[in-house]
Amino acid sequence: MLPPEVLGEVREVGRRNPALHLEFVDHGGHAGFIAGSAPWRPFYYAEYRVGEFLAAQFARASASQASAKRGSGR
Known about the structure:
Blueprint: H1 7-16, E1 34-35, E2 43-44, H2 45-71
Antiparallel strand pairs: 1-2
């Protein structure tokens, strides 16, 4: 967790490193906290975002691979 004063510098470092994926949430602080409307219906934001992130990466890789195959005449 970082203070707001350094987030501009963090964004700049992230732009220079293609191996990093930075994500800043609009509300809240630590993205790993549990939320939900009732104790028996928890929502785990960090786990949810990991799934979304990986699904997007797999979709991008699959589309890239399909495009490469079309380009090579396969």
